[in-house]
Amino acid sequence: MSTAVSEGFEPKYDLRYVWTICLVAAMGGLLFGYDWVVIGGAKPFYEPFFGLTGAGQAWRAGWAMSSALAGCLGGALLSGALADRLGRKRLLVAAAVLFTVSAVWTALAGTYDAFIWARIVGGVGIGLASNVSPMYIAESSPAEMRGRFVSVNQLTIVIGVLAAQVVNLLIYNLAPVAQDASNDVILRSWNGQAGWRWMFAAEAVPAGLFLLLALVIPESPRWLLKRGRAAEAARVLARIGGAAYARAEVADVEATLRGEHQVVHYAELLQPKLLKLVALGAFLAVFQQWCGINVIFNYAEEIFRAAGYDVSGMMFNIVITGLVNLAFTFVAIRAVDRWGRRPLMLLGAGGLLATYALLGACYHYGVKGPAVLALVLTAIAFYAMTLAPVTWVLLAEIFPNRIRGAAMSLCVSALWVACFALTATFKPINAALGAAGTFWLYGAICLAGFVVMWLRVPETKGKSLEAIERELAD
């Protein structure tokens, strides 16, 4: 229950204002999605340009694709200390600057090394945004609708992914090359010289808009209270829900901070009570990756080829997966504050377990075509309406105000390490176990995740962050 309601009055929220500041923060998610995916469409063209297609170039080509991940991990690790020291707003601005610089720098890169450094800079922006955007939204949203607003960050990630795919396709179609074109032909084409640059440069438009808007939104009221700036926090909260709402929220937040020193050292997270929360958060972050769904996104081409689809069918199916992902993210936005976090997380783990069991059976018994497509779309639907957005909601909710920045930083860092490990191990696992065994393995992981969440994940629906903090402390 929100603090305002527990005080005996119903606040009148300025939802237009709340939506505005939350959507601005969620632009970090949109750029996260765009920057993460845009390189896939540019890959066939920048690789010939930088000479990454010849014999012995596999490592350099792989580093070009994955270098942003190094930046992601660095940005996530930095974000904890910086978010607590400098505030959430300044890090959103910094992420916007990094996205803008990376987009322009990558587009202008004339050497392989310049391209790599530009991608790392963009990765740092992703690392910052993936931590700070949901944190800012959670700290600024009314309790009874916080899940919906934090889930919007996942929606913008999905929109960013689709935007990158559409932009890549539109730019490519300005001067398409034959599917069987050699690397020399691709290198001499417009896409091989300039088109791939415009794919990256297009990101500068939303990144620049994000920068301008991030400059004018307020700082997180909970961070302001943590820094002793109660008057500023009260003004932000009054704008959200009125003067009485602001007084109740300020009193509640200050009660959780009273007697606590506000400079956080990472060693403090090893204290038994805090360590349990950090371990739970890290588990949720890792499980969101190791539930296996990102394998479907990253290796969709190979999965559909194994199911008997030709190139045309694979491309069509990949578009369908993106549309299903978007549609069921909207379902999550409506459900998260109605059904609650815990039921959705259990539904996601259980639904994926059942779907992977059937997918494994299809591959084991040689079932191909529409049955596999339907099961893949079912898995994506379960993920999009449960684990994808709700994990971010819980990570932004379960940590005390004082340590939220540092704790989320560690959990998001664990997420990026898990993302890398999942992507790097899929091919050897698939080679060793086959498609059927691989899906059954991820099903077993989902079973373990279901058990842990049944035992450990709390329900946080409709509760203020301070009420959650007190409950988990007990």
CATH topology of the largest domain: Growth Hormone, Chain: A
| Helix share, percent | over 70%
Largest sheet: none
What is the count of structural domains? 2
Give the tally of β-strands: 0
Q: Which CATH class of the largest domain? A: Mainly Alpha
The oligomeric status of these chains comes to: single chain
Architecture of the largest domain, according to CATH? Up-down Bundle
Task: Label the structural class.
Answer: mainly alpha
Beta strand %: under 5%
Number of helices, where a helix is a run of at least 4 consecutive DSSP H or I residues: 21
Shape: globular
CATH homolog superfamily of the largest domain: MFS general substrate transporter like domains
Global Rg: 23 Å
Order of helices and strands: HHHHHHHHHHHHHHHHHHHHH
